[in-house]
Specification:
binds manganese (II) ion, six-stranded mixed β-sheet, 12 strands, disordered N terminus, alpha/beta
């Protein structure tokens, strides 16, 4: 129980609640605060005493209040179906934070850990995330949970949220850095699209006292390492990191295990992932600095090959944006078109681009979205799923989707094909 360390800081919070996001550029020197600082909190303040801190403090205080109101409960942290290091590490840190409030939370995802680095991250750190397939979901008594939390996603990329909401489990918190995807009835919302990684947001919670990291505790060291990995992976190895992200990384550098991080990063790609990258290279078309590649069918567990192929295609000279997509199928003949966008063009907003290219489904839900530098989309194939025993049929089906997606993308890529911009 370390509640007091957080509550002692409430004076510090109050000092900084007036400036809002617009004042993020104003430097606030928290270190000159005359308030008493015990337990080395003064040091923590120094790290946060830069731009963006006011909002971070305010949100940490709000989160603390929310957690106090939910003591002794059981919660579910829902991650995207294919969780990335940013999501996994933040969920873990969140779990450690709420433990202090006697809240038990389980970290769940519906899909699979696809990227070799994610598998290594979970194995090497013992990260407590659980895969809930539809069968497992059915076997669970959801009435034993009093709340759910979305971290590094807003439910649009998770199959689990619908079931959880149907069970009447209220949304307690949304913590994310993707653009706001809709209106949420959540007690606590911290969605900051200008921050490059959710790991930065969660590290700021740690810095403001919601959990005092201790390098003597192995779990803390592993969690800090996971957060460092999450932060690096969402900022293209810090190359797209901004001051706030660097400040968070600087703080984590006091606790993380560099050797462990290195071991996670050493994980090799599988042959099948290499094959998808090869297909993306062969199939790509380059127009107006966009590289577009359909890679055909791939297995569910190799899904992460798509963003990895996009990461690779965007490195070609004269290419600023890459889009790679394919039809991903699971064991049960369920098929979905999945695509990834990577861009180095600062003026291209992946969220806007994907929403404009693919639009919405019949319920008004967009097929995808994005964050700085990256985006993704998922188009369910519904009635057309499966029945690929006949290879001519499978080929035809792929060609239809391939042409349709290309047309939609090329409308935006070639201004001459864009009726809005012609003449
Ligand atoms: Mn993220």
């Amino acid at each position: 129980m370390q509640l007091n360390s957080a509550s002692k800081q409430s004076n510090g919070f109050l000092l900084t609640t007036e400036p809002s996001r617009e004042d993020a550029d104003v430097e606030i020197s928290l270190t000159s605060s005359p308030l008493p600082s015990s337990h080395g909190e003064g040091k923590n303040r120094k790290y946060l005493g830069q731009r963006g801190n006011a909002l971070a403090f305010q949100k940490s205080e709000e989160l603390q209040k929310t957690l106090l109101a939910h003591r002794n409960e059981r919660h579910l942290v829902i991650l995207q179906d294919f969780p990335d290091p940013d999501a996994l590490s933040c969920a873990w840190a969140y779990q450690l934070i709420v433990e202090q409030y006697d809240i038990k939370c389980e970290i769940i995802y519906a899909g699979t850990l696809s990227h070799q680095e994610n598998i290594a991250l979970v194995k090497l750190t013992g990260l407590p995330a659980q895969r809930w397939t539809s069968q497992i979901l059915k076997s669970k008594d959801l009435s034993s949970y009093q709340g759910c939390i979305l971290i590094d996603n807003q439910g649009t990329t998770s199959q689990l949220l619908t079931a959880v909401q149907q069970a009447g489990i209220p949304l307690i918190a949304v913590i994310d850095h993707h653009s706001l995807q809709g209106e949420y009835k959540s007690e606590f919302i911290d969605v900051r699209p200008h921050v490059r990684a959710t790991s930065t947001i969660v590290t700021q919670y740690l810095q403001s006292g919601l959990l005092t990291l201790d390098s003597g505790i192995a779990q803390h060291v592993k969690c800090a390492t996971a957060l460092m990995h999450g932060l690096r992976s969402d900022t293209n190895r810090l190359m797209q990191a901004q001051e706030e992200d660097f400040m968070a990384a600087a703080y984590l550098s006091r606790f993380y295990d560099a050797q462990l991080l290195n071991a996670i990063l050493q994980a090799n790609r599988s042959k099948r992932v290499m094959d998808v990258i090869e297909r993306s290279l062969k199939n790509r078309i380059v127009q107006n600095n966009f590289s577009i590649a359909g890679v055909g069918y791939l297995r569910y567990e190799d899904r992460d090959a798509i963003p990895q192929a996009a990461d690779f295609l965007v490195t070609e000279e004269n290419v600023h944006t890459a889009v790679v997509y394919g039809i991903v199928h699971d064991e049960e003949e369920l098929e979905v078109v999945i695509g990834s966008l990577r861009t180095a063009k600062l003026t291209l907003d992946p969220d806007e681009f994907i929403k404009e290219a693919f639009g919405q489904d019949s319920t008004g839900r967009f097929f995808g979205g994005g964050r700085t530098g990256a985006g993704g989309f998922e188009i369910p194939m519904g009635f057309l799923s499966g029945s690929n025993e006949n290879s001519a049929y499978a080929k035809m089906k792929w060609e239809v989707y391939d042409s349709q997606i290309k047309q939609k993308l090329l409308k935006l890529v070639n201004p001459k094909d864009n009726p809005i911009q012609s003449e």
